[in-house]
Amino acid sequence: MRLPTARAVLLRLAGAALFLALAVGGIAFLVEVEIADGRVVELAREESAAFLTEARSSLAAGAADSDLEASLQRFMASRNGLRLNHGDGHFIVAELYTPDQRKTAEYVAPGAEWAEQRLSSTRHGFPTDGEAIYDRFTLDGHIFIQTMEPLLDSDGRLLGYFESVFQLSARRSHEILRDTATVVAVSSLSVLGTALVLLPIFGAYNRGILRLSRGLLDANIGMLTALGSAIAKRDSDTNAHNYRVTVLAIRLAEALGLEDAAIRQLVKGAFLHDVGKIAIPDSILLKPGKLDAEEFAVMKTHVVHGLDIVGSSDWLADAADVVGGHHEKFDGSGYPRGLKGEAIPISARIFAVADVFDALTSRRPYKEPMSYATTMGILADGAGKHFDPAVLARFTAIAAGLHEQLTEMGDDGVRDELRGLVMRYFKLA
């Protein structure tokens, strides 16, 4: 697992704070808009209540439409003058309906015929629960509220409906916009200000967590190296094989385009591929000659032992693909499970090529190193049998340069090269 840098953590915290500020600002905006709408709806309720006070007897008695029309005209003219004096705005349309939803009277302010047409084309339903229905819309920078208000007598009996379109004055619209912008700004800035105060605290806390996490990661990598080196020394008196084969496997994985996570798993598996040999007796492990059938059966158990070892650690568990699969063969003749083709994990197919190449070109207690040409000939003979042909073909394209580079580096140089690769894949965010 890669660890994020302190800078990455701070950027994430800053991003979260900005998102929260925008979210709070958005919520504040919606709340403020609802409050503004409520103010205008309250105006409509005041008008309907005032109209009801003036026309209650006419409505209850079922006055003629012409009388209601004249009453509505007089009422709206007088009320608009009052509203204009207060600077809130004015009603540009008012309509009166009977309880059976028949229009009986209508008032349209001069020049507001378009609003009446809008009511006709987008008419909403009539309230059924005694609550007003309203709709807000903006046109040419002006705010309008369309309402439908039930008219009830003192006993709660429905006398009709009062529908209106109220146009806020420019001053009132600006006040609402200003108040809304102020609330949104204050809310957002409060969140951002709090975040700026807390950010250094969280940053310091996360830097401490990162230091502890990096220390743990270093310890895990140290354990990985120590385990791999221990068995390598026991097997060949040197841990250089582990270094070389891991570098070869990483470079081949890069050439094949594997993702970073898969390469990290490959690194663990490459270090620990033979860790199970710690359970193999020296008489078999270090035997200079060829193993007999019984000895080879014992040698093959190192895979099972290796899987037991890496399976005991959560951090090492993903090395199992290489530990358990590096002796499988592409044609299915390998062990321990006889996997075939792409059923063998890609990391194991990559490692098999790197492992055999380094084993053949390296000096071991029981053999001298083979030449590069001889080694490549043996690998070519194993294409489609021991090795994945596609993986081997990619390795063949880069093998000469890698072999020359690692030979020139020597054991110390290879160790330094591997350290740089491990730092890249395990420590950078």
Automatic annotation (TrEMBL):
* Species per Swiss-Prot/TrEMBL record: Azospirillum oryzae
* InterPro entries, per the entry: Cyclic_di-GMP/3'3'-cGAMP_PDE, HD/PDEase_dom, HD_GYP_dom
Pfam annotation, one family = HD_5
State whether keyword Repeat applies.
no
Q: Please provide the record's keywords in A-Z order.
A: Plasmid
Protein name as annotated: HD domain-containing protein
Q: Which domain of life is it from?
A: Bacteria
**In Gene Ontology terms, what is one molecular function of this protein?**
phosphoric diester hydrolase activity
Provide the HD-GYP domain boundaries: 216-411
